[in-house]
Specification:
The complex is a heterodimer. Helix content of chain A is 41%, strand content 23%. Chain A is of the alpha/beta class. The relative contact order of chain A is 0.16. The chains are: A alpha/beta, B mainly alpha.
Chain lengths: 282, 260
């Protein structure tokens, strides 16, 4: 068991450089035509994500990070360049990915159990199988005792956890996560971060993770892409020099982590400051 | 300061007693009793109808018409709403015609329906169904059109087929709207049935009302109106109870919904 896991990690590390990317943005750009004018959400984005890699996208809010996730999910076509998934240009809903958006998008007319069961019902699993899997997932995300609660009766953090359980229920090979832990308190957030890293490592998931929290971006990532303010484009991509089985609880004591976050902070700070200057002067 | 429910009920009862008592005292002194009757006389007439079974017979007829029309119109409205909500082209083609029919006061169709269906219960049922149809149809249509695109996209990513999207997202999210339409329709269903009876009938509460008026029996007119109001309340309660059962996720919302 431990051996095969080790082997898989090695082969993945080796494959990272040469194998064709699972997700590839090639000169990707997206502009939206609004009544008030054209909004350029993202421009000239080049990024490739290898299978099994955990890549975080960090940058000021409104810099088009979510646009990238939407493009991988196939919610809209690119305005410039393209997005490839397993070498094929994404065209229409990409069913290989699971998407956890900023708002949880739970079905308000279904309770926690019912919401987590949706993807399993779509896959046509048997009732017994669904019940068993849903129960395991509820325990995993710590929603035991709230099985019969409706989304309106849950707190924001609990809704997020329910959405995460639903995402894990259908076991997509790639996870797109858009600030999934933004609404959680610090303890819960750390718990979920540990959980998601562990899950991805154990199950070999590829993750594209959007956040505006630099610490989170470094703590979780194998690689981290730093964005500029709108129109969003990648300023820099850094390899995070932390082991795959890092201990998130002790990161603050890790010099490499501290140095990298400080370095990236200097990179990000100008665009944040620029943002702050712009607002009052408008 | 928050006023408790019992206090509110006590105030309501006091207001009712004041109104009914004032009416009783003023009748024959301030106002001509012939025109306004008085509560005691109205109760006496109503009680007489209860004893003779007249009230239940006529109320039964009206209920049958209203409920049958409600069910028929509601069902047709729902199905049409779902169909047009999903088929954009058909909805676009039919739009001006629907607007035309919607602008027409449906009650104005009553004489035509008398010609077509006679003066029996069918005519009232069809009139009621026509009135209810548009309300439920428009609400269902709006509900289906307002389905969150994000929810649909999320399900599509899970591999949902058109049928999954319809049964798991579109229909449940339209339910709220359908019920809004149904609740709105209750008074209109009664209007349909009773106007139908006023125009041409020999049975039903509308007939009872018209008959009492024809005999200058003011107490009888008020007694019939009272019966109609009670009937409307019962139908409203029935829809509410149904709604409560059908939408368990809305239960916590009832209080919030009322606050602005």
């Amino acid at each position: 068991m431990a051996d095969t896991a080790g082997l898989r990690q090695d082969s993945r590390a080796a494959a990272g450089a040469t194998a064709p990317a699972l997700i590839a943005f090639e000169g990707f750009g997206k502009a939206f035509e609004l009544p008030t004018g054209t909004v350029r959400a993202a421009e000239n984005v080049n990024l490739s994500v290898a299978e099994g890699e955990f890549v975080t996208l960090v940058g000021p809010s409104g810099c088009g990070k979510s646009t990238l996730l939407n493009a991988v999910a196939g919610l809209f076509p690119a305005s410039a360049g393209q997005v490839r998934y397993r070498g094929v240009a994404v065209d229409g809903y990409n069913r290989q990915v699971g998407y956890m958006t900023q708002s949880d998008h739970l079905l308000p007319w279904r309770d926690v159990t019912g919401n987590i069961a949706v993807p399993l019902e779509i896959q046509g699993r048997s009732r017994a199988e669904i019940r068993e899997r849903v129960q395991a997932l509820i325990a995993l995300v710590g929603l035991t005792g709230f099985e019969r609660s409706y989304p309106t009766q849950l707190s924001g953090g609990m809704r997020k956890r329910c959405a995460l359980a639903r995402l894990l229920a259908y076991d997509p090979e790639t996870l797109l996560m858009d600030e999934p832990f933004g609404a959680l308190d610090a303890q819960l957030r750390l718990g979920m971060q540990i959980e998601i890293r562990k899950l991805c490592r154990d199950l070999g998931k590829t993750v594209l993770f959007v956040t505006h929290d630099l610490d989170e971006a470094v703590a979780l990532a194998d690689r981290c892409a730093v964005f500029s303010a709108r129109p969003g484009t990648i300023r820099r991509i850094v390899d995070v020099p932390l082991p795959r089985d890092r201990d998130l609880l002790r990161l603050r004591h890790d010099r490499r982590y501290v140095e990298l976050t400080a370095e990236l902070w200097d990179l990000l700070a100008p665009s944040i400051a620029g943002h702050a200057d712009m607002e009052p002067g408008r | 300061m928050k006023i408790g429910r019992p206090t509110i009920w006590a105030l309501r009862a006091a207001l009712l007693i004041l109104l009914v008592g004032g009416w009783e005292l003023a009748s024959g002194r301030v106002f001509e009793e012939f025109f306004v009757s008085k509560p005691s006389a109205i109760i006496a007439v109503a009680w007489g109808w209860v004893l003779s079974g007249r009230l239940f017979y006529h109320a039964g007829i009206t209920i049958t018409e209203a409920v049958a029309g409600f069910a028929l119109g509601g069902m047709a409205g729902m199905l049409t709403g779902i169909l047009l909500g999903r088929l954009q082209l058909l909805a676009d083609v039919l739009d001006p015609f629907i607007t035309m029919f919607y602008s027409l006061p449906k009650i104005a169709l009553a004489p035509l329906f008398v010609l077509w269906f006679g003066i029996g219960m069918d005519m009232k049922i069809i009139l009621t169904a026509t009135v209810v149809f548009f309300l439920v149809f428009l609400n269902t249509y709006t509900g289906v059109r307002n389905v969150s695109r994000e929810l649909v996209a999320i399900l599509r990513l899970m591999g949902a087929s058109e049928r999954h999207v319809l049964t798991k997202v579109v229909l449940p999210s339209a339910v709220t709207w359908v019920f809004a339409g149904l609740r709105l329709s209750v008074p209109y269903a009664l209007i349909g049935a009773i106007v139908g009876e006023l125009i041409a009938a020999n049975q039903g509460l509308g007939y009872l009302l018209a008959d009492a008026a024809g005999q200058f029996n003011t107490a009888g007119v008020f007694a019939a109106l009272l019966a109609i109001v009670l009937l409307a309340l019962c139908l409203n309660l029935a829809v509410k109870a149904f709604e409560y059962r059908a939408m368990p996720w809305q239960r916590g919302q009832a209080v919030r919904e009322m606050s602005i």
